[in-house]
Amino acid sequence: MRQETPLAKKRRARKIYRVLGEVFPYAHAELDFSNPFELLVATVLSAQTTDIRVNSVTPQLFAQYPDAAAMAQADETQLQTLIRPTGFYKNKTRALLGLSQAIMQEHDGQVPDTLNELVKLPGVGRKTAFVVLGNAFGVPGITTDTHVIRLANRFGWTESTNAQVVERDIAALFEPKDYTELSNRVIFLGRRVCHAKRPACGACPVAHWCPSAGIGEINPQAAKQLLAYELAPGREQLHQALLNGATRAELQAAGYKWEA
Ligand code: SF4
User: Fold this and answer.
1) Alpha helical stretches, state H, the chain
2) What are 117-122's contacts with CB under 8 Å, separation 24+?
3) What pLDDT sits at residue 255?
4) Predicted local confidence at residue 248, as pLDDT
């Protein structure tokens, strides 16, 4: 690609953002939660595993420990057993106990709603804090998870893999009000199309604006086979239902499974 002016780069980035909004108008944090505490716990559990795996353990976990007060007093072994399928369960158990106790002792049992306070909780880094701020408190933030870092590089938005540098470079291209939505849309693309190992360039909705187009499968039919979740071949009905505004809960009740 020719040397791109900063203005052209910003315009291209925003075009990608808009197109992703058309393809994934239902993009959202894919962890199931009903309050900030549940999202905080689910996000801590999501390290090194998939949201699908986390969503499979949290209903039972939250039934037993619905808030910080209950989790702060949880039996360590029992907690480990419940979250074991998410991996690294000993470290995660320590983090959940630690953050629940800190929330009880320092925040009257309520999850704090500022970056500074959130990152002081055990096991909570900037990425987790921004997920919670953006999706539970409506405070815009860029989630620099593995998908966002990978795609920001492929899009030419950054040349770094350092999360804070990536966050800064992305922040310069977008309006702060769009940060959370942008993160959700990019993560959706990363999970469904632009995979780490075999990106489906030939079936990618933003290939036209991506300087890395062609690093993955470019044959449209072969690329389609690489798509995941609702975009996978044979799941057109599910994708259409989501575009029509059906919620994930409604679709699950109708018998759809969420795996690819
Ligand atoms: S064109 Fe290829 S590299 Fe670029 S975002 Fe799409 S799948 Fe990823």
Assistant:
1) 6-23, 36-45, 51-64, 68-72, 76-83, 89-106, 115-118, 126-136, 146-154, 163-171, 179-192, 220-224, 236-243, 248-253
2) 118/40, 121/40, 122/94, 122/95, 122/98
3) 87
4) 81
Q: For a pocket test of ligand 1, which of 201, 224, 227 has the largest count of ligand atoms closer than 8 A to its C-beta?
A: 201
Q: What CA–CA distance (Å, rounded) separates 101 from 158?
A: 38
Domain annotation for the chain: domains and CATH numbers: 6-26+144-227 (1.10.1670.10), 36-136 (1.10.340.30)
| pTM score | 0.91
pLDDT at residue 249 in the model: 81
Q: Which of 215, 219, 194 is nearest to 205 (CA)?
A: 194
CA of 201 to the centre of ligand 1 (A): 5
What the block records as the tokens of 155 is 């899009």
> Given the structure tokens 């921004």, which residue do they identify?
130
Per residue in 139-176, pLDDT (tens digit) is 999 999 999 999 999 999 999 999 999 999 999 999 99
Instruction: Give the pLDDT score at 3.
Output: 86
pLDDT in tens, 80-102: 999 999 999 999 999 999 999 99
CA atoms of 178 and 246, how far apart (whole Å): 23
Amino acid at 187: I
210 CA from centroid of ligand 1 (Å):
6
